[in-house]
Amino acid sequence: MAQAKKALSKTSGKNNSRPASRAAVKTYQNYINGEWVASQSGEMFENINPADTRDIVGRFPLSTSDDVNAAVNAAQGAFDRWRNTPAPKRAEILFHLGEILIRDKERYTADMTREMGKVLKEAGGDIQEAIDCTYYTAGEGRRLHGFTTPAEMRDKFAMCVRQPVGLCGLITPWNFPMAIPSWKLIPALICGNTVVIKPAEDTPLSTYNLVKACEEAGIPPGVVNLVTGYGESVGAAMTNHNALRLISFTGSTATGRVVASACAERNAICSLEMGGKNAIIVMDDADVDLAVEGAVWGAFGTSGQRCTASSRLIVHKKVYKQFVTKLVENTKSLRVGNGADPKTDVGPVINNDAVEKIMGYIRIGRNDDGAKLACGGKRLTRGDYANGYFIEPTVFTDAAPDMRIAQEEIFGPVTTVIPANSLEEAVEIANGVRYGLSAAIYTRDVNRAFRAMNEMYTGIFYVNASTIGAEVHLPFGGTKATGNGHREAGTQVLDIFSEWKSIYVDFSGKLQRAQIDNVESSHSA
Ligand code: NDP
Question: How far apart are CA 395 and CA 390, in angstroms?
Answer without folding.
Answer: 16
